[in-house]
Amino acid sequence: MLASTLRQDELLSTDIATVMRRLFWEETIRVFDPVHPSFNCSCNRERVGNMLKMLGQEEVEAAIAELGHLAIDCDFCGQHYDFDKVDCAQLFAADIGADALQTPGPSRH
């Protein structure tokens, strides 16, 4: 409602601090320094590899057999990641070694 009392020429010719004082003269006005947002994508090859591991070895191997390689593009920053048959085999080779070291417990989940 208060802003509707301003005329167009007032908005165009008056600085923001003066307009704020005129509109909100009863309030304590605090003006903060502007913050400029910046873009930072957190993708990397390791995270993309973890995503492939979540799909499962069977699905990744089927995709590799069909396509020959996997090309993954980050939808946020546009970074391109390429995984061939050897890259995908290495993803799951580390998991097999870790599972072989663990002995199964008596409880089932």
Word description of this protein:
This protein is mostly helical and 109 residues long. It has a domain at 45-101: CBS domain Like. It has five helices and two strands. It has helices spanning 8-13, 16-23, 45-55, 57-67, 85-101, and strands spanning 70-73, 80-83. It has a two-stranded antiparallel sheet. A hairpin with a 6-residue loop joins strand 1 and strand 2. Mean pLDDT is 83; it is low at 97-103.
And the CATH topology of the domain at 45-101?
CBS domain Like
Compute the number of helices. Answer: 5
The tally of beta strands, per DSSP, is 2
Order of helices and strands: HHHHEEH
Structural class: mainly alpha
Write down the overall mean pLDDT: 83
Top-tier CATH class of the domain at 45-101: Alpha Beta
Strand content: 5-15%
Please name the CATH architecture of the domain at 45-101: Alpha-Beta Complex
The largest β sheet comes out as: 2 strands, antiparallel
Low-confidence stretches: 97-103
CATH superfamily of the domain at 45-101: HSP33 redox switch-like
Strand order of the largest sheet: 1-2
Quaternary structure of the protein: single chain
- Inertia-based shape: rod-shaped
What integer value in Å does the Rg equal?
29 Å
> What is the percent of helical residues?
40-55%
Distance between the termini: 61 Å
Short summary of the structure?
The protein is mainly alpha-helical. The chain has helices at residues 8-13, 16-23, 45-55, 57-67, 85-101, and strands at 70-73, 80-83.
